Amino acid sequence: MLYSCKLKSVCNLPVIYNKKINTTGTSNTDVPLAVPGMYQLDITLRRGQSLAARDRGGTSDPYVKFKIGGKEVFRSKIIHKSLNPVWEEKACLLVEHLKEPLYIKVFDYDFGLQDDFMGSAFLDLTQLELNRPTDVTVTLKDPHYPDHDLGIILLSVVLTPKEGEHRDVQSSIHSFLHWRIYEIKTMLMRKSWKRSSKFQTQSLRLSDIHRKPHLWRGIVSITLIEGRDLKAMDSNGLSDPYVKFRLGHQKYKSKIMPKTLNPQWREQFDFHLYEERGGIIDITAWDKDAGKRDDFIGRCQIDLSALSREQTHKLELQLEEGEGHLVLLVTLTASATVSISDLSINSLEDPKEREEILKRYSPLRIFHNLKDVGFLQVKVIRAEGLMAADVTGKSDPFCVVELNNDRLLTHTVYKNLNPEWNKVFTFNIKDIHSVLEVTVYDEDRDRSADFLGKVAIPLLSIQNGEQKAYVLKNKQLTGPTKGVIYLEIDVIFNAVKASLRTLIPKEQKYIEEENRLSKQLLLRNFIRMKRCVMVLVNAAYYINSCFDWDSPARSLAAFVLFLFVVWNFELYMIPMVLLLLLTWNYFLIISGKDNRQRDTVVEDMLEDEEEEDDKDDKDSEKKGFINKIYAIQEVCISVQNILDEVASFGERIKNTFNWTIPFLSWLAIVALCAFTVILYFIPLRYIVLVWGINKFTKKLRSPYAIDNNELLDFLSRVPSDVQVVQYQELKPDPSHSPCKRKKNNLG
């Protein structure tokens, strides 16, 4: 008598047995034994060779993703600035079906941008020999461009079966329970592995990408002084050199010095140190060529671990793979007061700490550490009504808080459109005219974070200790996007230090978006400049009409005024007239007769520009027009930027007299009063003499001083009309107010 024993899968487990057993204990083997297909795949990611260059410097920041069945199972660390990276990372994977190949994808990491694809390959697991280490070389290819050589990846793999050997069927009934227990254990192990793999991948990603910028251990202050005897790359025997610096994900590009082999840059910038041992700064020199790829001049490196701290080092670096030297000043200093903590740990709520901070920035400590202007504390409390970025109708939001080059991040709140972070960030303020930027992103496992919204808050516009709901804006800061974010911000600063810092160059951001060509942006800058020029043209027409006696009364009054002014003119009257103009506008404002008009024209152009950018992006994808006329693009971008600079210069002068930023207008009043008094009591020849002596001896007194113009540095802090529109606070929905929210909760 035969019994048929057929065991079905439980909890979606595969069938374990499909056997026929007779009463004598012997088996009929016409139905084979099917055992679970679980394997352990041990992978050692060795290195890459001759990978594709995706950055403009001719290098990449590669990392590797492993996928099985469309799911990411491992992601390697990022190797910065290398085409021959060495990882030596190990991963242990559980594989259920050998028919599904291991998918290997390589990307170039771009902070804040979409990572660039560098190639992919498949590893056929059925071709691997069991229980034997195998060295594998996979060739990377791009499916869209199969002829391109994208390099190779070297691996070591070991495939080990996790199930037991085929057993004697006589013990199959006894082994049934063992197999069932094995399957349940395997299922639990697989779920546990998937869960731990997910958290491990997220932890790895957060540590390498997000958490790394949290806390730095020091600051590297670099002053690029000059270049000597650089290599001539142009047909005229000269070059247009500029220099790129890179420390990890931090980048800085110097200005271009036209037609010289001995450029004088005199530029200063800072990098953050994240490693205890310092790090390596990669430096490359380039020759700018309009219309084609820039020429490589040479490279060099700085090993920060070899430099002593709290000391300025003068370095003369020989350029490798080229000619010439670069002269730099490098200083390693201790970390500034930058931190991140929970809401319960609040520096300003501790009376002792608050008193110490107030004392540090009191008016009595004017000349103590002039670079330490003030203290900023930002409480990132929560956000509400965010945009759903995932297909599930949820998002995984985290928040980025930036002040110039200082950048801190919150943790990620998963599957939530109303996240609560309750984090406190503290920053040192180097420039009171800086703008605090708070950006909300959606964390994505397979690609760079999705943008959800952003706000830009000038420090001088902050009201201390007030919890406010800020409406999130789009990337261009021109209009609202979905959601609000609740912030509470406190600013403490020394007004005298802040005023002195206004007269030195602004700190440049080392991560900035590259200039792009836009028809609407070009038109907007042209209209802005035209408006500034028309002010001068109208003034000239008005003066000319006085000479033509179009209005006899007006011409007579102008003639009398001309005689009076010329007869009594003194040099001190120039700043005095400007002072009177500022004072007149101030009294108009406090009396309620505000002559500052909201620039709806610029606001409308910004909105039109955003729509036009979307159209341009689609058109460029279809036609590739800009790629075909690269040289014209360079010229157009230059014209676009010049128009922006000229228009911004005129708008900043106007906004100074319009009291757009009261702090700067008061500072201008103080300066004009001082100039009026000086010009009244001191003869002009003495003033010119002092100015000339200072200019002639400045190089002797301070050979590596950075040249600057105090007036231009002052105006650079005044926002243009475009920035005024971008920094405007949008009115939040009343339903998002904290009081309203509490009432709703009570209801």
TrEMBL record:
GO terms for molecular function: calcium ion binding. Pfam families: C2, PRT_C. Keywords: Calcium, Cytoplasmic vesicle, Endoplasmic reticulum, Endosome, Membrane, Metal-binding, Repeat, Synapse, Transmembrane, Transmembrane helix. Residues 20-138, 200-317, 351-472 form the C2 domain. It is found in: Cytoplasmic vesicle, Secretory vesicle, Synaptic vesicle membrane; Endoplasmic reticulum membrane; Recycling endosome. It comes from the Eukaryota. One of its GO terms (cellular component) is recycling endosome. SUPFAM superfamilies: C2 domain (Calcium/lipid-binding domain, CaLB) (SSF49562). InterPro entries: C2_dom, C2_domain_sf, MCTP_C. It is a multi-pass membrane protein. GO terms for biological process: regulation of neurotransmitter secretion. The chain crosses the membrane at residues 556-589, 663-691. Belongs to the MCTP family. This is Multiple C2 and transmembrane domain-containing protein 1. It comes from Neophocaena asiaeorientalis asiaeorientalis (Yangtze finless porpoise). The gene is MCTP1.
